[in-house]
């Protein structure tokens, strides 16, 4: 299925059972709700998906199960976060074999590659696959920035088509657009900068709290892209305390706790992660409870034009 790099693309969590196996029933429940809310794609195996702890067989199950579930409704994209070029090529080959429609790619993990090494890494993988690629540009968390000159070199590969923009610099959206026009699609990768990014011209939003609040997330995107800025901003302001749960080392636990509150997930995480405990759990739960108490109605919003 062709990937259109726009709209809301949830980086979904991986659901586990108490016995630390994949909970496919709960996982598919969440996927169905995402699709029904109007998301534009499903991203598997990101940080929220606890990719670093997933086994290869589990990744295959998640991709094949998701592809079978969504059919032709939305594309399925899997994240590649590998330590070696050889491993990234193998991951891209597996993604195609499993039935994924596209890739989200991080720079090399653990090793802080220089500019030439990073460009070579992305280039070799892009040249090895026909799948479309979204580069994940997150220097804050991963230590490597993909700069405009680097994108200039990378865009000679037609399957490098989008960037998950997570530099935390909103002005970078304008620089990317000025430099590359529509050749490079831009998706916001930071929940707390989503409204600002969409107003600045981002094409989409790779979202985290969407896992628990899909309708509100899609509504903000739709309102912002159709010029209903006041309504989008009001909804975004309500959402902000929740969105801040995504910019935390415990974002997986935070968002899974939110999924429990909305009936779309469980708290089970894979070790070494542990569910939130003590005062921090109480703090996060208060944020979630307050948001649910004040949850706005969407029925009166301009969501049809």
TrEMBL record:
Protein keywords: Lyase
SUPFAM superfamilies tied to this protein: Aldolase
Gene3D superfamilies membership: Aldolase class I (3.20.20.70)
Residues that hold pyruvate according to the record: 206
SMART domains, per database record: DHDPS
GO-annotated molecular function: 4-hydroxy-tetrahydrodipicolinate synthase activity
Catalytic site positions: 136 (proton donor/acceptor), 164 (schiff-base intermediate with substrate)
Family, similarity comment: Belongs to the DapA family.
Protein name as catalogued: Dihydrodipicolinate synthase family protein
